[in-house]
Amino acid sequence: MKRLLNTIKFSHTAFALPFAILAACLAVHGIPAGRDLAWIVAAALGARTAAMAFNRLADLRFDRVNPRTRAWPLSRGEVSPGAVAILLIGGAGVFLFASWSLNSWTRALCVPTLAVLLGYSITKRFTWGCHFALGFALAIAPAGGWIALRPGWDPVWGLLSAGVLFWVAGFDILYACQDVRFDRREGLHSIPARFGIPTALRASCAVHVVCALLFAAAWAAAGLGALAACGTAAAAALLVFQHRWVRASDLSRVNAAFFTANGLLSAVLMSTWLIDMAF
Asked: Which of 80, 165, 182, 254, CA to CA, is 20 to 30 A from 238?
């Protein structure tokens, strides 16, 4: 089980799940009913499990020869493709069942949503815009958390989801800098592989500036106060931290920037916004 969870990087669920919970709380201006919150969390966990399991299976032939990924459990044969496929089916089943249990909107949107979550994995085969496809997939989390309890459009979830899209796209561009040589050799697409690492770092920085502005706009649209403003500023500071740590001449700290800063960002934003809303 530990190897399976490591295969799908289950700990990375901490990136998107807080935004689903935060959006759900914003939608009802408080803590959702236990049943609803449980279904939202189940849907988010199931969706991400299915998406990552599919990603590992789809990329297995690349992961087995990429120096960065060939030591992963599935690449080394420590976990079988069949076990990952079961995880994929189980995760998709949990997501669909949880979505079906919420309301008519989530029932109508669950299948197209699953298609997006699985489909982003193949985008790097034909477009350097794959980073934004991944961002869109994770941006579904806050939109889904809100719509699960309050169906319909609202600028709060729209701005929050857009912020997540640019946040994820920006850090995925950074992360892809590690695989430039491999991606070029294998004909895979990314902004670093297409335009080079220095340009990719500048693009990632620009994308994260847009992200910070969108989070600030979401804070204003939600009518939150000073504590949430501090949390939003702290999130922006964590974005700056990532870019100060990563240089074109030194990519050794990409993982530290990726895991530390982004794991903290979602937790800080969620906790400060929820506390602010409560008081």
From this structure: 182
> Which parts of the chain have pLDDT scores under 50?
none
Please tell me the distance from the alpha carbon of residue 141 to that of residue 106, in angstroms, as a whole number.
Answer: 12
For residue 135, the one-letter residue type is: G
Distance CA 148, CA 210 (A): 27
Domain span at 68:
2-278
| HSE-CB of 28 using CA atoms within 13 angstroms | 16
Check residue 247 and report its DSSP letter.
Answer: B
- Number of domains present in the structure of the chain: 1
Q: What CATH number is associated with residue 157? A: 1.10.357.140
Amino acid at 180: V
What is the rounded CA–CA span in Å between residue 142 and residue 176? 25
* Token reading at 60: 């297995």
With 0-12 / 13-18 / 19 or more C-beta atoms within 10 angstroms meaning exposed / middle / buried, residue 249 is exposed
